[in-house]
Amino acid sequence: MFAEFLQRLTRPNPTPMQDADARLALTALLVRVARSDGSYDAQESQRIDRIAASRYGLSPAGATDLRKQAEELETEAPDTVRFTRAIKDAVVYDHRISVIEALWEVVLADGVREAEEDSLLRLVSNLLGVSDVDSAMARQRVETRE
Which residues belong to any copy of the Co-chaperone DjlA N-terminal domain (predicted)? Predict the structure, then answer.
């Protein structure tokens, strides 16, 4: 279903993504991190819905629809390294930092920081070109809101 989208995303020198495509790719990355510990529960999917609704100005139904599409995309997406690098090439730095913040929201949604989630988030931050300092500051912002 997403073959053309993934092909555009992973080709050399992709063009910057349109807003709708960026939303879908970034939400799929949220799903990938949420699934990384082998437990993708209602709390995490609801958190993704809230993030999508607030970041993209979507209704609750629109956010749920986006998440469901992102869940499908995530299962079809290539390995995390290629998928994340493709997003890096198509999304500006400031948006990537906000994605790291959203990823921390998902990781911290269940109140437990699993080693798998931490590891994947460090990898994703690096692949997105987000510095360790910016990632740590994003985590701190999320923790103070929680």
Answer: 23-140
